Amino acid sequence: MALALTFFIAAVIGWATTYPSESDAKNIRYVLWKNGLYGMNFDTATGTMIGDGRREKLVIGRTKAQLQEKFGYLSTPAGLSQYLRVCYQTSAWKDRDALFIRNSPWLVVFDGERAAELVLMKCC
Question: pTM of the full predicted structure?
Answer without folding.
Answer: 0.88
